[in-house]
Amino acid sequence: MNRPFNAILPRLASPIVELRQYTLKPDQRETLITLFDREFIESQEATGMTVIGQFRDLDRPDMFVWLRGFEDMAVRKDALSAFYGGPVWAEHRDAANATMIDSDDVLLLKPAWRDAGFDLSGLQRPPANEAGKPSEAGRLAGIVEISIHQLRRGAEADFAERFRAQALPQLTANGARLLGAFVSEHAENTFPRLPVRAGENVFVTVAGFDDKEAHERCHANLANSPAWQAIGEAEPVRPTKPVEMLRLTPTARSLLRVATS
Questions:
Q1: Cα 250 to chain centroid, rounded
Q2: b (16+ CB within 10 A) / e for 206-223
Q3: Domain span at residue 162?
Q4: 54 occurs within a structural domain
Q5: What is the pLDDT of residue 136?
Q6: Cβ distance 163 to 205 under 8 Å?
Q7: Long-range CB contacts (< 8 A, 24+ apart) of 82-86?
Q8: For the chain, how many structural domains are there in total?
Q9: Mind listing the pLDDT tens digit for each residue in 98-142?
Q10: Structural domain includes residue 35
């Protein structure tokens, strides 16, 4: 069902979430963002998916990161088939693909616990004429941090519980807001035309900060906290690789953002 651009969404946890990281050709990110925000939001949501958020990576100028959600894997198959077989993608795919080097860095995720999905209730997406405008990084849209923890298979539940009990209170006390927490969805990829990082086992958190200064202050405080350093180091939940951290700012039409005024 198509949603008007100014619709206020109810609570929407999206039980299936894709985290997509695109490596772009030099100086092509703003071209893709303008095209995406103008053409690829309403047209995707018309097929039954939700475009949760799209972001500039503050540390990698040629990276575009975005999130989309689905009610289940069957809906994902139908929605992706409809969009990528539809007229909007046919019209604009050459222009979009011309900006990209790689679009296959995709994690398929599900909420780590009940109510750990994104709460989009009350959020209102800016209109299409905002496409391509700066997001006023760190002032109105805030900073979104995505942390990707690589785990051994079977460690998800213990790691998620350890995070909730020990890490989350420290993050919250230092100004972070948990926007969502996820683990790998190991179901078969229902739309193999678009690859995903199969075989990986991750725990992913999405946190929000009011601005760059709040983000930096939080991590400076945590770096000096022995309790924070101890989190994740205990067997059997120790991550298998260093944490991958994405420091992002929402585009002008991203639904997921931190500050609203």
A1: 10
A2: bbbbbbbebbeebbeebe
A3: 16-250
A4: yes
A5: 47
A6: yes
A7: 82/47, 82/48, 83/43, 83/44, 83/47, 83/49, 84/193, 84/194, 86/43, 86/47
A8: 1
A9: 999 999 999 999 999 988 999 988 888 888 876 666 654 434 569
A10: yes
For residues 88 and 40, what is the distance between their CA atoms, to the nearest angstrom?
8
The CA-to-CA distance between both ends of the chain, in Å, stands at 30
Distance CA 184, CA 110 (A): 6
What single letter denotes the amino acid at residue 14?
S
The reply to whether 171 falls in a domain is: yes
Domain membership flag for residue 5: no
Q: Give the 3-state secondary structure of residue 63.
A: strand
- Burial 235-248, CB ≥16 within 10 A → b, else e: eebebeeeeeebbb
**Residues forming beta bridges with residue 183, ordered by sequence position:** 110, 203
Assigned token pair, 190: 């229902």
The enclosing domain of 88 has a CATH number of: 3.30.70.100
Distance, in Å, from the CA atom of 43 to the CA atom of 38, rounded to the nearest integer, reads 10
Nearest partner of 50 among 99, 20, 16, judged by Cα:
16
